[in-house]
Amino acid sequence: MERIPILRLGHHLLVSIQVDLHDRLALTLQDDLTQRLAENGARGVLLDISSLEIVDSFIGRMIGNIAAMARVLDAHTVVVGMRPAVAITLVELGISMQGVRTAIDVDDGMRLLEADTAGEAGNNGERPPL
Amino acid sequence: MRDVSDIVAVRQQTRQWAGEVGLSLVDQTKIVTAASELARNAVVYGGGGSVRLELLENGVKKGLRLVFADQGPGISDVEKALQDGFTTGGGLGLGLGGARRLVNEFTIDSEVGRGTTVTIARWS
After folding, report:
1. DSSP-assigned letters across all residues of A79-119
2. What is the model's pTM?
3. Do A94 and B101 touch (CB under 8 A)?
4. Is the ipTM of this complex over 0.85?
5. Residue A129 counted as domain residue
6. CATH number of the domain encompassing residue A65
7. What is the pLDDT of residues B64-108, one digit of tens each?
8. Residues of A with CB under 8 A from a CB of B
9. What is the mean predicted confidence (pLDDT) over B56-64?
10. What CATH homologous superfamily does B6-123 map to?
């Protein structure tokens, strides 16, 4: 089955969607990412959508779900690289992406995640011992 | 269109035609997004259906029209179905109303028990 790769980058998971995202692939990504977050205890998710030519309500919902699920699993999500035409269309469609943090590119997104985890844990992003 | 995997094919075809008509990048994105919503509706709620693409010409203006037709259960209250947040399928309820906002022309013709036809157009 076709899958979107999830890469580990330090304390974070990096997902770069490089294919036309059909509905089943979107759902698989949601499941895979949740699984990886639970297994690895990653602190952040960086979702790069710079290759996506459109974000419709289904994909928009998936992005919102990923951010919400990550939050429940104690991780932050930053969505990066949204194309301007996609942003304009998304807002007219009626999707506000509330609760989803965004950054211009992977570099900025990573800085946001690093700041989050450093500020939160105060110990280089490592989880405190149980 | 029979399966959710066909939605991608509709998007790609719409994108290609929208480019050929000369729509701007933003307008292309809008009609492709609207097409994606309507294709999904036809598959998920209408049990599958067809889409017809038409190139339009009116003087110097060019446009693209898409006609989505299914023989599904139909929509009993079209006004309600167009409202944001209304859904019978567990989605966001933005598909139909959202698609209408993304195009220049939008008509919907639905009859309970016979199916639904949605026509959209976007002009350059």
Report:
1. EE---HHHHHHHHHHT---TT-EEESSHHHHHHHHHHHHHH
2. 0.92
3. yes
4. yes
5. no
6. 3.30.750.24
7. 999 999 999 999 999 998 988 888 776 777 789 999 999 999 999
8. 20, 22-24, 53-58, 60-61, 83-86, 88-89, 92-95
9. 95
10. Histidine kinase-like ATPase, C-terminal domain (3.30.565.10)
